[in-house]
Amino acid sequence: MACPKTKDLIEAYGDGELDLGSSLEIERHLAGCEACAAVLERHRALRSALAGASLHYDVPPRLAARVRSAVRKEAKGRATGWLPSWRWAAVAASVAPLAILTWALVALSKTPSPGDLLNQEIVSAHLRSLMGNHLMDFPSSDQHTVKPAFAGRIDFSPDVRGLSGVGFTLIGGRLDYLDGRPVAALVYGRRKHVINLFIWPSAGGEGARGVETSLRGYNLLRWSRAGMLYSAVSDLNAPELRELRKAFEE
């Protein structure tokens, strides 16, 4: 992949929005191109800064008092029913900057956390697999066929289990890309629901505690076990998705 095309895709790559094939092409280019690697580092630094808690500021008491005072003055003016035009201009001039600043502070306080960004990334990967004809690289219901298929393609050996005994049919597996690295994706079926179970090593050992949430109409569970991170996502209801997690924790 040439530099111009890499730079066009570098932000999507840094945000984990590319498919595995494009990601691997960019990684090969980055291995030999310092200029593009520097662009990626700047993008990651900006993303990290925007996601950091340091950008959250509480509204200073004096600023809050000024906003309240301006609002009271405006309300009082409305109660009297009339203000000279120059007073309205003065009120607008004083309130507008404060309103803009308050809006900016509120917007910054809503900056998604790294965990929120990962949840969005996981659900996006699930949707891509359903819509992009990329659900499985290794279609098989045999765990002894799917597990060896990952060998040589990723730098770890995922725990692959046949769970038909508890109602989850192994359909196959594929490679995917999450959290800035290749991951294993196991695909299970339950009735007409498709479940993606993403597995990758925890960079810090055990990793984060369990997370259960719902995003864009999909239920998502994240947990860690034995130095590995697991993320299950599906339109299957949450109690049944917990059964899959339980089967992997036993």
Structural description of this entry:
- With 250 residues, this protein is of the alpha+beta class.
- Helix content is 49%, strand content 20%.
- α1 packs across α2 and α1 runs parallel beside α3.
Quick take:
This protein is of the alpha+beta class. 49% of the residues lie in helices and 20% in strands.
Largest sheet: 7 strands, antiparallel
Distance between the terminal alpha carbons, to the nearest Å? Answer: 44 Å
Following the backbone from N to C, one meets helices and strands in this order, namely HHHHHHEHEEEEEEH
Number of helices: 8
**Average of per-residue pLDDT values:** 82
Q: Helix amount, in percent?
A: 40-55%
Strand content: 15-25%
User: What best-fitting shape do the alpha-carbon axes yield?
Assistant: extended
Unreliable spans: none
Compute the number of strand runs: 7
Spatial sequence of strands, sheet with the most strands: 1-2-3-4-7-6-5
Radius of gyration: 25 Å
Please state the structural category: alpha+beta
SSE diagram, text form:
Blueprint (H helix, E strand, L loop, with lengths): L2 H12 L5 H11 L3 H18 L9 H20 L4 H25 L4 H18 L6 E2 L3 H7 L19 E10 L2 E10 L2 E9 L9 E5 L2 E8 L2 E7 L3 H12 L1
Antiparallel strand pairs: 1-2, 2-3, 3-4, 4-7, 5-6, 6-7
Helix pairs in contact: 1-2, 1-3, 4-5
